[in-house]
Amino acid sequence: MVKSQVVKRSVVVGGHKTSVSLEEAFWNGMKTIAAERGRTLSELVGEIDAERKQGNLSSAIRLFVLGHYKSRAAEVGDQLEQAAYPLNAH
């Protein structure tokens, strides 16, 4: 059985220090997304925290990262389809 590599880190959200437990892959995704958006990790976590409707912060972050990469995959798929069938472009 593979052990989950959950890493607990402290971040400042809204001026308050809190700890968040996420798998390393999600931390890496968050770092990449924050860099792409010109934000710090704490700023990005703060935005996610402010927008979440329910659930805990770790779950909200996982869903955010998943949504980000699903959107990216859809964009790439659309680009590939347009390249393959340029006359069908919308």
Strand and helix layout:
Elements: E1 6-13, E2 16-23, H1 24-36, H2 41-51, H3 57-84
Antiparallel strand pairs: 1-2
Helix pairs in contact: 1-2, 1-3
Note down, in words, how this protein is organized:
By secondary structure, the protein is α+β, with helices and mostly antiparallel strands. It has a single domain (6-88), classed as protein bp1543 (Ribbon-helix-helix fold, Orthogonal Bundle). It is built from 3 helices and 2 strands, in the order ββααα. A hairpin with a 2-residue loop joins strand 1 and strand 2. Helix 1 crosses helix 2 and helix 1 (24-36) crosses helix 3. The longest helix has 28 residues, at 57-84. The radius of gyration is 17 Å and the shape is elongated. The protein starts with 5 loop residues before the first strand and ends in a 6-residue tail after the last helix.
Key features of this structure:
single chain; 90 residues; alpha+beta; Ribbon-helix-helix fold; 3 helices; 2 strands; elongated
Radius of gyration (CA) equals 17 Å
Low-pLDDT segments, ≥5 res: none
Strand content: 15-25%
Biggest β-sheet strands, sense, barrel: 2 strands, antiparallel
In CATH terms, the superfamily is: protein bp1543
Q: In CATH, what is the class? A: Mainly Alpha
Report the span from N to C terminus. 48 Å
Please, what is the average pLDDT?
A: 88
The H/E string reads EEHHH
Q: Order of strands in the sheet with the most strands?
A: 1-2
Overall structural class, as computed from helix and strand content, comes to alpha+beta
From the coordinates shown, what is the CATH architecture? Orthogonal Bundle
Number of domains: 1
How many helices?
3
**Total number of beta strands:** 2
CATH topology: Ribbon-helix-helix fold
